[in-house]
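Lab notebook, bench 4. We co-purified these components, and the gel suggests they stay together. Before we commit to crystallization screens, I want a quick structural picture of the whole thing.
Request: model the full complex, all chains together.
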Amino acid sequence: MSLSNILNNWSHYRRGAEEGGHHDYEHRWTMAINLDKCIGCNACSVACYSENNLAVVGKAKFDKGQAMHWMRIERYFDESEKEFPDSGASFLPMMCQQCGAATCEPVCPVAATYHTPDGLNAQVYNRCIGSRYCSNNCPFRVRYFNFYSYYESSWPEPLNLQLNPDITVRDKGVMEKCTFCVQRIRVAKDKAKMADRRVIDGEFTTACAQVCPTSAIVFGDTMDKDSQVAKLWKKQQVERVVTKQNKSNSELRGYRIFEELNVDPSVMYMERVRDTEI
Amino acid sequence: MNGPVKRRDFLKMMGVSGVGGTLAGCDLPSTVTLEEGKEDVVSYFMPEEYVIPGVGVWFASTCLQCDAGCGIHGRVREGRFLKVEGNPDSPINKGKTCQMGQAGVQSHYNPDRITQPMMREGGKLIAVSWEQANSALKQKLSNAGKKIGWFTGTISGHQSALITNYLDAVDASTESHFTHDVVNAAVWQAVNKDMLGDSMPELHMDKAALILSFGADFLGTWVSPVHFAGKWGEFRSAEAGAGRGTLIQVESKMTLTGGNADLWVPAKSGSEGAIALGLVNYVIKNSPNAGNNISSEQQNLISSYSLEKVAQIAGTSQDYIKRIGDALIKRSPSLVLAGASVEGHEHGYDAVAAIMLLNIVLGNVGKTIQPSNATPFPQLQAKPGNTRDLIEFTNAAKSKKFDVVFFSGSNPVFTAPDSLGLKDALGNVGFKVAVSTFPDETTMQADLVLPLSSYAEDWGTHVPAYQEDRNIVAVQQPLMNNLYSDTKGLGDILLDLLKDKKPDEYGSYKDYYAYLQDAIKTLRGSSSIKEPEAGDLQFWNKTLKTGLIDVADQKNTFASTISTENVTIKLPEEKTDSAYPYQLAPVARLGLYDGRHANLPWLQESPDQISKVVWDSWAEMHPNTAKKIGVSHGDLIEVASENGSIKLKAYIIKGVHPDTIAIPLGQGHEEFGRYAKGLGVNPLKILTARTDSKTGELAMYATRVKVTALGKEDVFVRLGGNDTQVGRKFVRTIPVEVLKRTEGA
Amino acid sequence: MIVSEKDINEQIKWAQINTDVLRSLENPRKAYWVALFICFAMFSCAVVAEVYQYQVGLGPTNLNNPHMWDMYIATFVFWIGMSHSGTLLSAILHIIHADWRKPIYRFAEAMTTFSLLTAGFFPMIHLGRVWNLYWVLPYVSDRGHWPNFRSPLAWDAFAISTYLSASMLFLFIGMIPDLAICRDNTTGWRKKLYTAISLGWTGNDRQWRTFRKTYLLMACFLIPLAVSVHSIVSSDFAVSIMPGWHITSFPPYFVAGALYSGCAAIITLFVLLRYFFRFEEYMTTAIMEKTAKLTFAIAMVWTYLNLIEFGATWYGHNMYDKELLIAKATGPYAWVFWTMIFCGMVVPFALAVQKFRRHMPTMFVVSLFLNLSMYFERWMIVAPTLSMSHQSHQWDVMWPSIVQWAIVFGSFGWFGILFLIFVKVFPSISMYEVKEMVYHRKREAELEGASAATNKPNLEGAS
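Here is the predicted assembly.
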């Protein structure tokens, strides 16, 4: 971002979030999670451990709240109409929502978390100095800090052989979070570039979406209008960069969590359904 | 895994990326082959097509983390097996896996694996060489004559066939092969076999408008969870034929499936049969066409099961049962399932039969319950694990029936209730051989331990017990070379045993790999293969590429007249005992399962789906029960049955019947490596060894317990600090009418 | 009974002032060494804890997913707050010509500097990767990396370093004439030291004129700086979107709190210095009374801003904010909250009573209560918000571990070491300004007397 660039493109950079921010997105990686299909089985969470070299912290540290589950299944016992346990529990897969107007980004003193042209909140582990402000400012509380060096405790020989070589093992003092499996995105983009084409929908997906036994998680690029996820967003009439959805049919199931905070999450949830006629 | 040359040549011949067995190219095989002088060292500078540094390749295999037989793709890079994904070709899981499948890599790379043979000397297991182990084994086997047994978990495919052949070769009966699994559907299968003539009929959940499940945790641990979860996705989607399906779950403790129910009904375990009969009664009365297939004599008996009586037996509200009855009448087709909590009683068989009767009355048989495919290779068919075999084995061992017993793929010392006396019985077995990957409880009791390769290093074939849509034989191939040079595959160990007995028949096979290649060639020759390729090699390649063999559909047929005569209408009343006022529900959970995955740190750290507890055991109880006993959340309690007691923490939750104390399986290991040892308790230990009167299965839910409060403890180690959304609407719920309006469900 | 007493006895001879103040630089008594040792021991605890934490990571602090910050940040804000005392007493009172500040501003300024030196540690200690600390500074990197200028933490780095250098300079400049006095009255290494740092002060007119202008300029520069520094520290919280942090009134609230804690700390040290160095002649009860009145006024401002915050939260009717406010008052941290309210809003009313104001032991105890309240205030800002924010699933109650306590404890030791060394090396009462004060008072008294007796004031003897 040179000075001349800023001066020449000032009007471009000063666009507000409502106009899509100052980003010229190449892709907008997005998710749609159907909470009526989600059974809360944890497969996504473990797949994430496997794909992203997440540390197992052990009982004592888990107790302290220092666990590293980028994808966690939140289980709630209440819901508006009926009292638990009549209609079961509520499960919510919660991971980094890759907000378009992310609150974690402006507060990092060293810009270790920034917005990529793909619309992701990238976390640069090398740059992170561990001030942890990003986590404090995340309304979803989905950023996880390496309170220890877990390499030896979490991957005793030969468990370390399992580590995914595509991504790093984070050392102590570094913040980490769900990346939408950025290593897979990279591979797919590189492949597409080599073949001189756009990334095809369904060519790859995140570890959680791939494993999800009920296919509750759909991942894709909303810039690709024909992608499954773009269609779902469209069908549910959920749009980016708004604080309140303007739906022609207010009963449509799509919603984003903490939309009112104007963080513009990239994850659309679809309401859980319960049969109340029985 | 011997014979790298052969496989390498074979791989070269194929020259197809993404197909093949283990990879040469990682450090270990190069060294080995160099020493053997059989092959050149392959440099990374001249990589084979399948070992491009930095590029992952996917190999098809079969998951052995439970017995469902899901197809997997293992990601291999630089000769290392890195990640499990579902195999989209597999009709079982269609490209998906569960968390246990994901954690497969951790059982492969587990730091506590057994790396070399061990023999008991002076009461201790001492590391020995294979030669020493083999010579000791040979001697014991020749002395044993035909007093040889095999004790395994659920097993199928050619390994199972080899065990049968081996027992045959030593003149032991096939009765000497025991298959034991705590998590099973043995009674369900027995009832199906007797009533429908098909022990594992296909359950078409996607076609059902309503599923009524009596404790069948089909999303968690029942039969084929990933498969059913996939079907659940279709069941829950508005686009599916019957619209969005509705689930009613009746059980004593909320399982993962119960957590997803539209209506969750707490009922005493053991009362499900009565509820089913009550519902049959209600349906017959309120639905004009129902009940044709039931004799009037039986109808008379059934009519005594009024809703009121049933509700009282179940310890639940009559309104619930009426609602279920109305739903069943209104929504068709439906599907009624019975799970472990139904089976686990002395009248378990009768209760399941009553539930099947409900299916028959509702006309579900033939609609949502359809005949399964017959396996054209009966010798490969799954021998499902059960608990009857555990009891029978214990009795056989007590009467000194065996001199040598092989244990593999099952951990009876951990799963057997103390009251069964297995530990003492094992003392009567002259020589216990554990063919094992991990130092589990059974292995540590053995006299000889043979190090088993992990499932990602071994060859094999598996015939999933539950199959739907397509008929397959799942193929397991190594995803990487042996991590430890001294471990051996199960097939190889069996083959070595057989070579001794029948050298003329098996001597020509260099190893199990060669045997399997030959065996699959033979399969191709049979008419039952759907699309045999032109040549043996092509067929073999295709098999490895897809990870399965497509077998021609050959539907079983249900018995022409489905007999309901055997259904016992008079179910025994639940015994109550003021000294032991509560029912113990030992529940398997998706994750640690029956305890076999307690040594996988990912699964230990993966919270229980309902309670969200990690790394621990807990006892779930209803708030009212807790009040009565005087315990609060997190307190230490003692749960005691007639046969022992365990100490653990109380977890107060409404999702459990007030008469039930639910304790998850999985923890309480005394051995089993660093991650499992010393965590939590094992509720199986305090079970009272009662059995189902018809099938002889262990009545797992029939144990009664008392609870004493022991005072304050630390709170649980669990995920999340809050069970409620505090008005935040993270998970928003809409009634199904809204979905009908928007998506036409 | 209203006691009207002089701020200072105008009859003190200037030579006497020199002697009294210089005496405090000499011959440390046994108590001094004991105090120094205790401070050093406290500091050692922190060093041990920090070395451990550096080796292992931040895990042993008990910090966790919702509680990413805790005592370190609270203590940081606390020390930054303390640092406002010197600036306030020195610069603001200097500009408004409140000359009663003169005997007490030097140690207050020293306190500013040392508080900042202590505060500066905490952003470092709390970092996950301290060794990369310099990345928050805008240095020219061959990779073209810059800090994130949008982040309040980067602002902190600038603000604190500016404030630290400015207040050190202010302290030093104000000390130059005194250093010259020291130079003229000492021998040995002290002589050499004072010669070097008194920068050739001879006290001629030109020097005095330049000195006055510079000092005034620094004072004028420092006041907005001090206000901005604490406003920026408040943006560490106010810029976020978290309930309990995202509050518009935070900058003035923080500044008021800072002045409050600064005043409280001044009273504490006032009493200690007066007692140990026998400065009763200079640090008089009259000055204490004025300081106490000032503190009371600031306490009321702080109380008001606090109530405003509660009121705004209540009327704002933001679900998250309100829920947090209720939890602060009733939740697991409630005892901290109510201690803060009691010590910060009720205890200062003791300052309204003249009897208490004039009783040094009482003032000492009261000032400690005020300091405690201010520490709790900072902690109550940091911890409860993190314990329950938007994401109810991650709610958690956390108490800091021994590692955090050790480091915080040790920071007081570090401050003590610096302060103890200071009082033995530098005059902790400004000699030249006390002389001015004495002179002016004397002149005023004489003017009053002259207007009665039409006598000319006797100005001789002023050199």
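The longest helix of chain B spans residues 130-144. Worth comparing against the SEC data before the next meeting. Chain B has four domains: 4-111+455-488+509-551, 118-183+378-451, 186-370, 582-711.
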